[in-house]
Automatic annotation (TrEMBL):
Matching PROSITE patterns: GNAT
CDD domains found in the cross-reference section: NAT_SF
Domain N-acetyltransferase intervals: 2-164
Listed InterPro entries: Acyl_CoA_acyltransferase (IPR016181), GNAT_dom (IPR000182), MshD_Acetyltransferase (IPR050276)
Organism: Paenibacillus algicola
Name recorded for this polypeptide: Acetyltransferase
């Protein structure tokens, strides 16, 4: 059974492990190994995650969640409010061995239950062949594209939207 709960400070090392494994699996053909390593060291640094978790605890509804399956952390997701009625999924990653087990859908169910109305958005790399089918099957639609350059690597990001 999948259990979704608020992420805690004690989960940081597991979140880092999941991020590394998921990023290497998901992005190995989209980004260079040095870019992935650099990104993970900064975006998932302990102090950065600690600040995100502490900020999340100040919110009315938790947005930084973890999924437990088989008595261990199997994934995490984080969302933030952009404006009234508009929320963005900042990150959602599941250990590759737990793909297709309903964890991503469980995160979305929790978010839609908590938010009840408005829109939920997610920016996804256009070449991400794992996330795009997931979001499309979950009722999201592609709304716009933007180009971004990260560490000299140009990628197209697609904004996926779910009306709640």
């Amino acid at each position: 059974m999948i259990t979704i709960r608020s992420a805690e400070i004690e989960d940081i090392s597991q979140i880092q492990r999941i991020a590394r494994e998921a990023w290497l699996h998901t992005y190995k053909e989209l980004y260079s190994p040095s870019f992935i390593d650099h990104f993970l060291r900064h975006a998932y640094a302990e102090d950065s995650l600690r600040r995100s978790l502490e900020k999340d605890k100040q919110q009315e509804l938790p947005g930084f969640l973890v999924a437990e399956l088989d008595h261990q952390l199997a994934g995490f997701a984080q969302r933030r409010q952009l404006q009234e009625g508009e929320h963005e999924i900042l990150r959602m990653y599941v250990l590759p061995r737990y793909h297709q087990r309903g964890i991503g859908r469980a995160f979305l169910r929790q978010y839609t239950h908590d938010l009840k109305s408005g829109v939920l958005i997610a920016w996804v790399a256009k070449e991400n062949r794992i996330a795009i089918p997931f979001y499309e099957k979950s009722g999201f639609y592609a709304a716009e594209e933007k180009h971004e350059v990260l560490e000299g690597q140009s990628k197209t990001q697609v904004k996926y939207v779910l009306k709640l």
